[in-house]
């Protein structure tokens, strides 16, 4: 014999309240939603029928009345008293397009805040009015009722402890939050909270008024005046809305919550994943008919359509940016000043954005700030450093040698520069290595160099323990006494060496596998054009040469923003004290 499942209503309500809904406040949304659906259903069969939804609360009893389709007694048994049964699905069980509800569980949320729910309803067919009283213990009763108009009134009395959800201001706030964009007039205590539709609706408002309404909405809702308002439209998802471009820099890691309405009812104030990750400079408010909610109606269901929407919205924001470049470069420059990170992230994958960055985003170069486009026009190829440290180290020397260099050390800049040949295949893009700068520094006159051999030998002896080669060159700017040049590989090898010295045996053995013979030792380049260096070169006492070269080494490290290892610190200390010792006259004890 087949038996029927029994449902323990208390258990189900407990499940909803603890595991489905984030807060009991959703009860008002579900009631509002049922009222809207009932009005929609009635107007489908009776187009001129009144459309009004009125909410009233005494502080402990809440009443919501609609002029909707109503229910007959038979429907009350079938729909109100059967969990999971909904009139809003078609014969195949699919959610019917025109309705907000679909799951057949929404009314149960009333039991999150009330022990008893009364529904007083009269169907549009003229069937007699019915009163249904459902209780949280899973029982219900039905009685004949007295109601002249078609429609439904739902009455909830607060359960002890849930009264705060029935307070007038709370009810007003919740009804406004969830329902402010609903297409039908909704009142709370006689005060209208909805009925105009979304602020981006197309209507007879003058364009200026419409924009002012949109900006006002951002100010009221998000507390900022947007940099710009971008209209959004994705027909395949029945989606319309706006993206507000943030007037301040946004943290890419912190997702801006988007406000999502489904069929004009608020789904969430903090939707994630509506825009592509790079578009963190915009915050959206959208209404969509075709996107699906999760059962809690508090988040979007992540399906293929959402993915399509994400792409389409990304394309619209991108289009706005490209349009700005064409029509209002000054404004684009201001936008880039605030949101360059997002645009740069986009340029990594998108050629149009790459072109936009190339043309409009000024970068730091050793010839002043300029766009990559300007840089290319002036200097042909693009030389860049991949770190800001390399740039600081090389900028002045490179410009004195006529080498133009872009600082590629900021987020995404190197990757963007390396991608530029996608725009112009003939473009030569080259990472500048300190070694290349070295080859541009003029050697000394052979005669002079020969005379300085003894000095160089003494200097090299002082630097040997640091694995650094001392070189003499003559270069501009003459004010620069010394340069410490270290290529990437050499820098890596020197860090490896330092780590290895500190690591235990096993780990040191592992690190040793990465060590290579040092082909490019770091170089300490003394500038013979510098007056102080020339005086140091004239020193003959090996100890004094050692101290002076060590001091120059320390200065070069500091000037180039190189890390100071413990060995360097010890050497600097010794050299400083040694020089001080030499500079200060000996105490005369006699
Ligand atoms: N105000 C109302 N007027 C007319 N019918 C209603 C009203 N409220 C509820 N109903 C009927 O009761 C059914 C069950 O409502 P319930 O809120 O539980 O689920 P739903 O709205 O169908 O789906 P969801 O769980 O997605 O909200 C509805 O499908 C509708 O037929």
Describe the structure concisely for a colleague:
The chain has 590 residues and is α+β, with helices and mostly antiparallel strands. It has 3 domains: 9-194, Histidine kinase-like ATPase, C-terminal domain (Heat Shock Protein 90, 2-Layer Sandwich), CATH 3.30.565; 207-326, Ribosomal Protein S5, domain 2 (2-Layer Sandwich), CATH 3.30.230; 441-486 and 522-583, Four Helix Bundle (Hemerythrin (Met), subunit A). It is built from 19 helices and 21 strands.
**Major sheet size, sense and barrel closure:** 8 strands, mixed
Number of helices: 19
Q: Which superfamily, in CATH terms, is the homologous superfamily of the largest domain?
A: Histidine kinase-like ATPase, C-terminal domain
| Bound compounds | adenosine-5'-triphosphate
Give the overall silhouette: elongated
**Ends apart, CA distance between termini:** 123 Å
What is the number of E strands? 21
Q: Could you say which structural class the secondary elements and strand pairing correspond to? A: alpha+beta
* Range of strand content: 15-25%
Assembly category:
single chain
Mean pLDDT: 90
CATH topology of the largest domain, by name, is Heat Shock Protein 90
Task: Identify the CATH architecture of the largest domain.
Answer: 2-Layer Sandwich
If you had to describe this structure to a student in words, what would you say it looks like?
This protein has 590 residues and is α+β, with helices and mostly antiparallel strands. It has three domains: 9-194, Heat Shock Protein 90 (2-Layer Sandwich), CATH 3.30.565; 207-326, 2-Layer Sandwich (Ribosomal Protein S5, domain 2), CATH 3.30.230.80; 441-486 and 522-583, Four Helix Bundle (Hemerythrin (Met), subunit A) (Up-down Bundle). It contains 19 helices and 21 strands. It has helices at residues 9-20, 26-45, 73-80, 168-179, 207-222, 304-327, 329-347, 351-360, 372-379, 388-400, 413-419, 434-439, 446-451, 453-464, 488-502, 505-512, 531-537, 542-559, 566-583, and strands spanning 53-57, 61-66, 114-122, 130-135, 140-144, 151-158, 186-188, 191-194, 228-234, 239-245, 258-262, 265-271, 282-288, 362-363, 370-371, 382-385, 406-407, 429-431, 469-473, 482-485, 523-527. The strands form five sheets. An eight-stranded mixed β-sheet has the order 5-4-3-6-2-1-7-8, covered by helices on one side. A five-stranded mixed β-sheet has the order 9-10-13-11-12, sandwiched between helices. A three-stranded parallel β-sheet has the order 17-16-18. The longest helix is centred in the middle third of the chain and has 24 residues, at 304-327. It is elongated. The termini are far apart. The mean pLDDT is 90. The protein binds adenosine-5'-triphosphate (ATP). Residues 30, 33-35, 38, 66, 68-71, 79-80, 86-88, 101-107, 152 line the site of adenosine-5'-triphosphate (ATP). The site of adenosine-5'-triphosphate (ATP) has 23 residues, from helix 2 and helix 3.
